[in-house]
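Question: Now follow the chain.
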Amino acid sequence: ERPKHRAVSAPLAKMGTIFRSEKMQLVQMIVQNDAAHAVVEAFGEEGIIEFRDLNHGQPFHKRAFTDEVKRCEDVQRKLAALKHALEADGVAIAEAAKESMSAAELAGVLAEKEEELNHMQMQELMLKKNHNALLEQRHVLELGAGIYAAQAPGSSMSAGGAELEITDFASSTATSMLSYIAGVMPRLSMASFQRVIFRATRGNAAVYSKAIDETLHSYDLKSGETEAVEKDFFMIFVAGDVLKSKISKIATYFDGTLYAYPDMAADKAAMKREVLKRLGESSEILRTTAQMKTAMLTDVGAHFASWNFTICKDKMIYDTFNKFDYDVRRKVFVADAWVPESKVYDVYKTLSAATAKAGVETRPVLNLIETKATPPTHLPVDKMVYGFQALVNTYGTPRYREVNAGAFAVILFPFLFGIMFGDLGHGTLLMLFGLSMIRNEASFEGKKLDDLVEMCYGGRYVIFLNGCFGMYVGLIYNEAFACPMSIWGSGYDWDKETIIHPPIFGVEPAWHHATNKISFFNSFKMKISIIVGVLQMTFGIFLSLLNHLEYRNYKKVVFQFLPELGFFGSIFGYLIFLIFYKWSVPWVELGKPAPSLLTTLINMFMSPGAVALPENAELLLFQGQADVEAVLILVALVCVPLLLFPIPFLESCEHEAALKKKLAYKALEGGSAHEEAAVHEEGEHEFSFGDAFVHQAIHTIEFV
């Protein structure tokens, strides 16, 4: 069966509320290809429709605008690299400014900026590496002077406790055979390096090292990473070129860097002057390079927000294009979208305006489609309700036209929190914290926040109302900062140990000074929690009745709502009755202890009727209790099978009836009766009795 179409003439429905999803209408747009970009952009700015994917099941790489989406993703990658550079250099990103630049032009600009940035970063990294090498050379010349002077001919040098004597009687040949190596090495590798040298030279090398006070760096030109490293200077004296070559290779293996160290004092002084001169020049070049890089990044930061907005918008537009169906012959695109019924006429006006803006003279076509597909849920929430709705959505988004629990969570959640929190002082602090975030929304909106601050800001109204209800219940509990208070005065006379009058508001302050304070408040708060919890669950059952009536599912009214209400009321409704009855009876005046409600409820199921026996007289709350409990148990037992069995069988019968009706229509149209009958309309699913029964069994188990 094909979808039915009808024309658009005027607004069709009233605005929805947060209580229930707005009524949605499926529309079909037929617009020329030249106006596609303008139409999608206009609807994206309005935010009043949700496009359907007409190419569902088709792989991404086979869709029409895959290349455009990938091009946008490549531009986003370049933007991410630029943003990383901005954050690394501490350059602020300016507020978004609208720029008339297309995605293609932006791709060219970003390619130039990325190439320029990469060139600057590579040049800067090479300059820093060269500057670091000059620093290491300076330390080698400065620290090596003391070691080399001490080991001049005529002095002795020791290595590991042994002494190598170089005297005036030594031959010139022996002295000329003594070589040395100087360099720097990471401090963590120095000990291992010395052990390997000792073994490689069999103790025929003298190794000296000194710590370098200045923190040096290690630069990787391939990855661009920079690491601060603590290094030591080393100088090794060894006899022979063979050992010198071997030690040089070992030093390189341990990430050591070898540097020249002249023999003559004049050469050393000249080299030091040259190194200091080049260090000064290197510092100036680094400063100039950093200024040029900062100037370039500042220009990028001034346009970054606008560029990012432009490319994100284009990517979303092309992603939306991939959901459309294109008629190549007529050069038009066909798009289906869900629209609130109250906004259908606005959609038509927006579509016409966008088409005219694109310079297309042909009028667009907007058809209203009748379908059995389930529409999406649309709940118009504001900034106050947003936090509560997000809290509800973590448990599940309401179905289409289902009563929205978020509407009631705005009050019920803070109220339950107040019962748990219940402190005037702490509630005031919580309320002030939420109020401060509400009053300073402008300083938080649109800013990048860390996870904790973002969570608090999103739930600022939740925090505010939680604090208000915490204050209110704290007044009832007569507590502030966990300390008792007596704002309304006490109605208890401590001298006479009698009650003069009931408390004006809340709990009697005298209970805070009683010896059984803890047991009283634990019992009181537990019973209050039970009462509020049962009332809230009963309220939820009645909300399900509204859902059944909205969907016209009357079988669930009889075989789900009524059994749930009967089962829940026969147990927990009876428990609430017992709580109020126990509170209303003056047990002290009657001279008997108050029976335990927990024991009463357990005995109701474990020992039905036992409360009427003479030996259990102390458990009796009222006359006829055993008969009442027997009836309630019977009601609860009857409700369970009524909740479990009828609905799956009724759904099976409804499915068979609908199937026969389809076969009858098919026969009238001239189709074969033996053809496949299970032809489902859009949005329908094949019925399975097993799935229906399992679903109802799960619901019954969860409820019971």
User: Anything to note?
Assistant: The chain is about 55% helix and 10% strand.
